[in-house]
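Lab meeting minutes (informal)
Scribe: AK
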Amino acid sequence: MHTIEETVEIAVPVRTAYDQWTQFKSFPRFMTAVRRVEQVKPNVTTWVIGVGPVCREFEAEILQQEPDSRLAWRSLERRPSHRGEVTFRSVGERRTSVCVRLEVEARGVAGALTVVPRLTRRVVRAELGHFKEYIEGLGEAGGSWRGSIRNGHVRPVEPEPPRSRVPCWPVG
């Protein structure tokens, strides 16, 4: 297993960075290696990635997702397999540190190409830079999903309790 970790600081609040990251279908707009992403279920996505003439499709399961904090996943394919997580941390007013950590296991010839340390690290660093440019240019997220996932089980957004229509209780 080979581990890669890259961090970028972004000039938007944590909520904005996190909300945009959860919009997987928008990844091809700013990530050059991502060609298509489809949300099959709330916790399963299908990815088509490619660099140059090399193209690969895989499914990933979201294992953990906590709003404004963390998203962790694992690929459902065996060759090559990978796990990853992205964390979001406030580093000041309207500034967020986004850290991506990938663990890639090479199997076979195709897998060996994905763990060339410098190449994979370079791609991750470049794609994080593209995310930074994209979200800073927008200034706000193009959508959001505020639910959570624990151990692969989806927990939808908790609705806010209804507010009382009585402004002050009791009066007089």
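Next up, CB showed the second protein from the same session:
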Amino acid sequence: MSHAPLLPLDGSAVQDVEPEDARYSSSLRLLHWIRAILVLGMLSAGWLMTRLEDVVPSKYGTIYPLHKSFGLLLLGLVVIQIIIRLRTRLPKSSEILAPWEKHLAKLTHATIYLLLVAVPLMGYAMSSSYSHSDGITLFGLPVAELLPKNDTRFAMFQWLHRTMAYGLLALMALHVAGVVKHRYFDKRPGSDVLRRML
């Protein structure tokens, strides 16, 4: 037998606790923040190592191998995250947001996921095709180089890797700007989309 919800004496409605399905699953939330940290670290390391002189021992002895290892780790985490997203019920888009905001958010998310897969793959293709590559390792474990050595293709993969990385950085900045706008500047209740990822 169902009962009507109790109302306080002043007649105002009781505020419901936000349901758990209004947020992403705990596994997706955890992967989101781990991935965000890794991407920022990878972009910073990529920017640093391309500006170091070749005579700096740590450039090829430490930074490049770690960049490759974390790139492969990031690729694996993104694939796992995509699989979980496809098998998990996701929170609905906020009805408060304008249609153009919903479309922009979906496009931005889809492109970010595409680049999160493509950028590491282009990095792998660079190392695999470079004739003077010192190999690809995953934290010391050798990884097979599947592409034939071809420095012309290496140059193409290098350009794609760099261009896509900057594109990913730009989209992440747009993503963060959207979150900040909805959390701190929108005056509409329910527009704070960050709560779904906390």
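CB comment: Residues 1-17 have pLDDT under 50 and may be disordered.
No objections, moving on.
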